[in-house]
Amino acid sequence: MGNLNSVNVFRLISSSIFPRFAIHLPYIRIVQHMEEIIELIKTDPRYLKNIEYGEPRPGHPEGKVRLHIQDLEKNLELLKLKGLSANDYWKLMFVIHVHDTLKAEAVKDTPIPHPLNHASLAKQYASQFTEDTDLLNI
Fold first, then answer.
1. What would you report as the CA-atom Rg of the chain, rounded to the nearest whole angstrom?
2. Cβ-Cβ contacts under 8 Å for 26 (sequence gap 6 or more)
């Protein structure tokens, strides 16, 4: 029967309950999981505090991280209308909600590998919610 990890168990159960749709159900499970992760992030006190950081400046006339996230979400919705897959949509939504969130805690003008660069802080923060190395390395 092979390795019975959670995905294989899910496939086994779903194929017996919904045989016509079994091939699609693990994909749906992943999307629902990412939606749940994003909702968890949106309620995190650290996230809620840090998205209020920022002033209008060149390249970011919206100022606060919260407003930047809103702009990116609007752009993501446009990509969805143009055929972006649900899987890619939720991965990009995850990145939108973690990438700039910790700018308030970052040391300005540090290189990305520096542990206090906003991208490094974002990766560390994101790793609390996912082990997906592709997402963590964006």
1. 18
2. 7, 10, 11, 14
